[in-house]
């Protein structure tokens, strides 16, 4: 049951306190034939220097959205990293109405300050 679609869309916000600030919008769409609920998140943030940071937590932006078939949920969040570029990937854990848990990969997306692109 991995018919949940994850669409990330990052953007650069500028420099803040010596770090590079990025916003990202994530749209989660339930393409399953039954409702699903997002339980947990796992992020892998890779800085431009190769350092890896992992983040685990319940839900997203303080919510554990329940999505009916065909329904989408969009949220915005952000990341501060010490390098001008990096990437993010990870997974979300969902459950269905039968209590079966499953993970869906978050496609890797690039975090890049405009001056780092050639």
Automatic annotation (TrEMBL):
Gene3D superfamilies in alphabetical order: ApaG domain (2.60.40.1470)
Residue stretches spanning the membrane: none
Family matches, as PROSITE patterns: APAG (PS51087)
SUPFAM superfamilies, per the entry: ApaG-like (SSF110069)
Record InterPro entries: ApaG-like, ApaG_domain, ApaG_sf
Domain ApaG: 1-118
Cited NCBIfam families: PRK05461.1
Protein name: Co2+/Mg2+ efflux protein ApaG
Provenance organism: Elongatibacter sediminis
Biological classification of the source: Bacteria, Pseudomonadati, Pseudomonadota, Gammaproteobacteria, Chromatiales
């Amino acid at each position: 049951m991995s018919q949940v679609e994850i669409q990330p869309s990052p953007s650069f916000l500028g420099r803040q306190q010596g770090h590079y600030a990025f916003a990202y919008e994530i749209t989660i769409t339930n393409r399953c034939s039954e409702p699903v609920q997002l339980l947990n998140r796992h992020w892998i943030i890779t800085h431009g220097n190769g350092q890896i940071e992992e983040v685990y937590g319940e839900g997203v932006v303080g919510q554990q959205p329940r999505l009916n078939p065909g329904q989408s949920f969009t949220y915005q969040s952000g990341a501060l990293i010490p390098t001008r570029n990096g990437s993010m990937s990870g997974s979300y854990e969902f459950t269905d109405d039968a209590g079966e848990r499953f993970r869906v990969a978050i496609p890797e997306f690039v975090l890049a300050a405009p001056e780092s692109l050639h």
